[in-house]
Amino acid sequence: MKERTGEQASERPRRERSAFARRPFLHSPAPGVLRFLLTASLAAACTAGCSSRRVSITSDPPGASVTVNDVRVGRTPTSFDFTYYGVYDVLITHDGYEPLRTRARAAAPWYEYPPFDLAASAWPGGVHTRRSWHFALSPLPERTLSAEEFERTLLERAVNLRREAQADAAASDPAQ
Q1: Contact, 76 vs 58, CB < 8 A?
Q2: Which of 19, 21, 48, 94 is the one with CA 20 to 30 A from 161?
Q3: Strand, helix or coil at 158?
Q4: In this predicted model, what pLDDT tens digit does every residue of 22-59 receive, in sequence order?
Q5: Is the separation of the CB atoms in 56 and 79 below 8 Å?
């Protein structure tokens, strides 16, 4: 092994010290550390988004009982979280009002379609989707009409229903 002289021995540490002295905080970390930091920051950015989907339901009059897809969700005004966009079966009932059975749609926003859905799920702070449904209930006829009017309209509705049933039966019967 070759022995260093005093001048050569002092030269090497001086170079290391001078390079470090020029950039004390900028020395480059190992490539594995850089890969780890990049992966960790990417994972944090991708998992930072937390999306929520919520439907708010109101009715006129308030206080109506709400059932969505055969699950009671409460009395209006109410709200519930949902998972899937699409059409929901809704039943609204209230004393003194006709029950309302209808379908309501929770439409998907533009950012739920590819390729935007990937960016929306990674959005820091999350994406919050809100849908509002409002339903107006009709009072029961016996509460709003006099007894004579109610009886007359009831009989008219019965006659019309009988005609519709007979027409449907005749249309579906191939013998006639």
Answers
A1: yes
A2: 94
A3: helix
A4: 555 445 556 676 677 677 666 655 555 577 889 999 99
A5: yes
